[in-house]
Amino acid sequence: MSDPSTSWRGRAAAILTVLTVINFLNYIDQMLLSSVLEQIKLEFTLSDTAGGLLGSLFVITYTIAAPLGYLGDRFKRKNIIAGGVMLWSLATLAAAFARTYEELLVCRALLGIGEAAYATTAPSIIADLYGPDERSRKLALFYVATPVGSALGFILGGLIGEHFGWRAVFLVGGLPGLLFAALAARIVEPERGRLDPVTARTEGTFFAALGRIVRTPAWGINTVGLAMMTFTVGGLSLWMPTYLERVHGMSTASAGPVFGAVTVLAGLCGTLLGGSLGDRLQARSAGGYFWLSGVGLVLSAPLIVLLTRMDHLVALFVVAFFAELLLFLNTGPLNAALVGCVPAWLRGTAFAVNIFCIHAFGDALSRTLIGYVSDRAKTAYLAGQEPTEAAVRAAEAAGLNLAIATTAIPVLLGGLVLLWGARRIARAPGGLMTYAGGPQPHR
Question: Which of 376, 387, 415, 173 is nearest to 294 (CA)?
Answer without folding.
Answer: 415
